[in-house]
Amino acid sequence: MATATATTRRPPALLVFWRSTIGKKSVMAVTGLLFVAFLLAHMAGNLKIFFGPAEFDHYSSWLRMIGSPVLHSSWYLWGQRTVLVLALVLHVTAAVQLSKRDRRARPVRYAHGRRPRASFATHTMRWGGATLAAYLVWHILDLTAGVANQDFQEGHPYHNVVADFGVWWVNLIYIVALLMLGLHINHGFWSAAQTLGIRGATRDRAIKTTGTVLAVVITGGFLIVPIAVMAGWVS
Ligand code: HEM
Fold this sequence. Notes:
Blueprint: H1 2-7, H2 13-19, H3 21-46, H4 53-63, H5 75-105, H6 120-144, H7 157-164, H8 168-195, H9 201-231
Helix pairs in contact: 2-3, 3-5, 3-8, 3-9, 6-8, 8-9
């Protein structure tokens, strides 16, 4: 009798949730919203570049002092990095697993060899997501670690950003990635709201508008920096 009880033991509720499709979609929705919050803050911080090198560089060193004197220098930043990396791992793992599940559920391709139009957004999300992941690695090597920036100066982010956007192909990488980011947020916000059950005839319109406004504000707010350097407004 004891062995029967042992063999029928249910896995922990969290694992059951993670294994379910709605669980993975919920994880994607919540982590995606966390990224949107980070991006809004990062984008707003970047706009300080318009107030000159002293203010921008001071802002960057302030980021390392958040929580001081309770926290030691950069402890908050490392906490934030840990949360963001964990969120990214969960977001990407859930996306890959859901994509595999989707393929398994529909193994036979359509007569014309392609998926129906409805999955265009899904394709954009997958390829856009992969592009953003690659961009993110490069961006951190470029402006945080500095190894991908030929003119990197530790503790001088204003100089590093201006040096970056003086190179045409760096601008190209940023512009392509930021446009991908806009598409990703626009559709991702809608998907997240649906997953979290925020629906209804009147709400659908408001959710679509909010997603588009967020996408335009974040993409535009980031894009203005390389544009300003290229135009000579920031030098
Ligand atoms: C024109 C666009 C952007 C500019 C000029 C920019 C600028 C910067 C700079 C200067 C840093 C280093 C900050 C410091 O060390 O004080 C940084 C770090 C970072 N950026 Fe961006 N960024 C841009 C777009 C993005 C985008 C689109 C993402 C995400 C998809 C992103 C994610 C990050 C992350 C995760 C870090 C590392 C933060 C850390 O050190 O913990 N950035 N960015």
